[in-house]
Amino acid sequence: MARNTSLHLAPMGDTDRFRPSPRRPVRVRARSMAVDTHFEPHAHPWAQLAYCTTGLLQVTAEQKGYTAGEVTYIVPPSRAVWIAPGAQHHVTVLEAAEFRTLYIDANAIPKSWTGCRMIVVSPLLRESIHALDEPRGQPLSAAREQLLTSLVLDELAHADTQTLGVPMPNPQSGDKRLRALCEAVLRAPSDKATLAEWAADIGASERTAARLFRDELGLSYQQWRQQAILAHALPLLARGQSISSVAAASGYASDSAFSAMFKAAMGQSPSHFQNKNRL
Q1: pLDDT digits (tens, 9 = 90+) for 133-180
Q2: Residues with Cβ < 8 Å from 92, sequence gap 6 or more?
Q3: In 3D, which of 150, 149, 78, 84 has the Cα closest to residue 120?
Q4: Contact (CB, 8 A) for 80 and 53
Q5: 152, 73, 153: which is closest to 118 by C-alpha?
Q6: In the predicted model, is pLDDT for residue 3 greater than 50?
Q7: Which residues are paired to 31 by β-bridges?
Q8: Which of 78, 97, 198, 211 is found 20 to 30 A from 159 (Cα to Cα)?
């Protein structure tokens, strides 16, 4: 993936212009974002849905209920990340994206949605978001906006969730060695290095690294690495890459071993996901 100079943006900007309210509980903000655009860590008193119609996002959000301080999601257009009100989060554009941010009034969200999650974007939700995005010079009528808002909220409430996030150590209180190891694995998902080899790179023993994974992330290294591989493989499959190339890019020597891991974790084979969610 080609890298250019990064563009760091302030988190708020003119966000207040899109602030949701009980009268207008869902607001859509559309932006075209270049690769490597980065939104600094911030939080809102309202909920947010991070979604792109094209491109690829990396969303890292504070997650309540996890041992880890935050979870990182890789987000293709067939998925979106729900960010709970008040949750600290930051976004990096991995591939040039048509970014659609939904700001949602805290009183309009399901009461059980207290944490962040990845959801599946249904065709109806995708088209409803597009319709709710006001064309320039053509504001929606109040009646149409109300109908579309109700439809978006209903689709969100019934959306399937995807267990696909990579827990990361808390950036403030977590062990910096563990964070460095995790970031190195995320940068090189095809690397077949053992935990002992990764641990040596950060100046720790294998036993210490294993303990850090267990204590800070609540997972073994192998469990965590599987989540990282799935997060890496999902957008590749969704873009229509062959299972062989995705398996190789994920560090698997055979298609069958990769497919078995994928099906055990996701409940569906890679080919099913590839065929159903081609970008």
Answers
A1: 876 667 889 999 999 999 999 999 999 887 678 888 877 777 999 999
A2: 36, 37, 38, 39, 57, 58
A3: 78
A4: no
A5: 73
A6: no
A7: 99
A8: 97
Domains of the chain: 7-162 (2.60.120.10), 170-276 (1.10.10.60)
Tokens of 210: 């294993």
C-alpha dihedral sign at 71, 76, 80, 83: positive
Which residue type is seen at 87? Answer: A
Alpha-carbon distance 110 to 194, whole Å?
42
Taking the model in full, what pTM does it have? 0.73
pLDDT at residue 64, as a whole number: 65
What residue spans of 81-141 are helical by DSSP H?
A: 123-132
Which candidate, 235, 221, 226, 236, places its Cα nearest to that of 262?
226
Expressed in angstroms, the distance from the first to the final Cα of the chain is 17
Distance CA 204, CA 214 (A): 15
pLDDT-derived band of residue 267, with 50, 70 and 90 as boundaries? confident
Under a CB-based contact definition with an 8 Å cutoff, are residues 5 and 36 in contact? yes
Pairwise CA distance, residues 221 & 214, whole Å: 8
Least confident of 77-86, 92-101, 158-167, 178-187: 158-167
Burial level of 118, CB count in 10 A (0-12/13-18/19+)? Answer: buried
- The average pLDDT across 191-211 equals 95
